[in-house]
Amino acid sequence: MGRDAQRHVEQSQRGDLLWAKIYGFPWWPSIVRGVRHLGDAEKPRLRVRFCHTDDDAELTFDNLAPFDSRPELLAGKVGKIKSKTCLLYTSPSPRDS
To answer: How far is it between the farthest Cα atoms of the chain?
Structure first.
């Protein structure tokens, strides 16, 4: 991520729209819910709520990106879900056959 994008994430406030990334999942649109600054943690973090799922996460800045910085995601080119836990829930069960 470029310097301008990093600065944008660092200056985010409650209600801002960002891309957020959790290991094993693709980048996902999210809304900033809260900010934890340098004095509060080893690494500053933002609490975000993922759009559509309403799940919350507290993420470091390197797992966040400005919404307009990822045009490929806006075009619908979302990555695959690699989380084994998620795949268990989305795979058809033997009963469904």
So the answer is: 54
